Amino acid sequence: MERATRHSLVTGGAGFIGSHLTEYLLETGEAVTVVDDCSNGDRDRVPSETTFVEVDLTESDSLEGLLDDVDRVYHLAASKHVDTDRPHGQFDDNTRMTRTVLEAMADADVTELVYTSSSTVYGEAPRPTPEDYAPLEPISAYGASKLADEGLLSARAHSHGLTVWNVRFANVVGPRLRGAVIPDFIEKLRDDPETLTILGDGRQEKSYLHVEDCLAAIDHVVAHAGAVDGEGDAETSREGDEEGAIHTYNLGTRTTTSVDRIAAIVADELGLDPTFEYTGGDRGWTGDVPKMRLSIEKLSAIGFEPARSSDEAVRTATRELLAEFE
After folding, report:
1. How many angstroms separate the first and last alpha carbons of the chain?
2. 103, CA 20 to 30 Å: which among 78, 143, 157, 258?
3. Could you tell me which CATH number the domain at 7-171+209-251 has?
4. Interatomic CA distance for residues 1 and 27, integer angstroms
5. Which of these ranges, 27-31, 84-88, 92-96, 249-253, has the smallest mean pLDDT?
6. Full strand arrangement of the beta sheet holding 205-206
7. pLDDT tens digit sequence for 108-129
C-alpha cells in the first residue's frame, strides 16, 4: 500500500539553510528525517515534529537503515568554510559525505536527490555566470569539493537512474545565519559603534539571496526542472527522469551588493555612523571570489524570479538577525 505522506531526509538539517528547509517541508505536509553531526548546526533549530539522528556522514555506514522509507534526499551537509587550514581534509570530508549518501540511496533504492552546490564552483568567472560556463576553475578547496560532488552525482545520475536537482547558490542570508558578513558586522558594531573593520577593500560585490526566496526557488526547480533541459515542457519534463537526469540551476538574484553597501545597511539599521577601516587587498580571505553574479536566466525560463533584490535581501536579513540578537 502506498504511503499517504511523502518522506524526505535532510542532511545538514540543523544548519542555517537546512533548518529552514526542514520547516518548509513540514509545512507542505511531508514527513522529515534530519541527520546532522551539529558541527555547523544547532539541534535546537530542528522542529520537534521531525525524526532527528545525530550522525557523522564521513562514516560510510552512518545512514544504515535510515533511508528505508524515504522518497527523496536533500543533501546540504558539508564543511562550509572557504578559508580553512585543512583544505585537503575539507575536500576529503565533503566528498566522503556525498559518497555515503549515494551508497545509502542505492542500498535503499531511493532515486531522487536535491544537492545544494555553490557559486564557488565557477571560480573567478565572467558575470553574470550561466550554468554552462566553462572551464570550471574553483579557487578554494570548498569550491573544488562542490565541483567534485557534482561529478559524483552526474555519474550516478547517468549510469544508475538517479534524478538529481543540482542547485548552485549565491550567498544566502536570513534568520539563524552565523559566520558570515552580516552577523559579523552586527557583532563588531555592537562591540565598537565608532569603527568597523572590513576585510579587503570593501569593493567585493556579490549577489545575496534571502533564504525564503532560496527555498521557494528550490521547490520550483524540483517541480519544473527540465523545461529548458531538452526534455519538453514543464508538465511533461519529469517523464524522462525515469532514466536518470541531473538538472543544474543557479539560484540567485539579478543584482549585487558590495561589502561597503552591506556595512552601510547594517550601520543604518543600528542607527550608527561608524568610520570604515580596511584590511586591504581585493578579497577578504584566501579563496574568496571578490565579485560574483550568477545568471538566473535558466531559472527565469521555468517561471521563477526572486521576490527580493540583493540589497533588499541584505536589509531584511539584517533586521531579522538584529531581532535574534536582542
Report:
1. 50
2. 143
3. 3.40.50.720
4. 24
5. 84-88
6. 257-258, 205-206, 291-292
7. 999 999 999 999 999 999 999 9
Run of H or E residues at 277 = strand 275-278
Residue 261 CB contacts under 8 Å (≥ 6 apart), including other chains: 311, 314
Chain centroid, CA 134 distance in Å: 21
Contact 249, 131 (CB under 8 A): yes
| 8 contacts: CB under 8 Å, gap ≥ 6 | 25, 30, 31, 32, 33, 70, 71, 72, 73, 74
193-222 average pLDDT score = 98
Residue 5: band (very low, low, confident or very high) from pLDDT cuts 50, 70, 90: confident
In what helix (H) or strand (E) does residue 197 lie, and over which residues does it extend?
strand 195-198
Distance CA 270, CA 182 (A): 12
282 class by beta-carbon count within 10 Å (0-12 exposed, 13-18 middle, 19+ buried): exposed
**E strand or H helix that includes residue 311:** helix 310-325
C-beta of residue 313 within 8 angstroms of C-beta of residue 253: yes
Q: Is the peptide bond before 183 cis (omega within 30 degrees of 0)?
A: no
The answer on pLDDT for 236 being more than 50 is no
**Cβ neighbourhood burial of 109 (10 Å; 0-12, 13-18, 19+):** exposed
In the chain, where are the structural domains located? Answer: 7-171+209-251, 174-206+255-292+302-325
> According to the CATH classification, is domain 174-206+255-292+302-325 in 3.40.1160.10?
no
pLDDT tens digits for range 142-152? 999 999 999 99
* Mean pLDDT score, 45-53: 97
pTM for this prediction: 0.94
User: Nearest Cα to 145, choosing from 85, 105, 208, 96?
Assistant: 96
Residue 3 pLDDT class (50, 70, 90 cuts): low
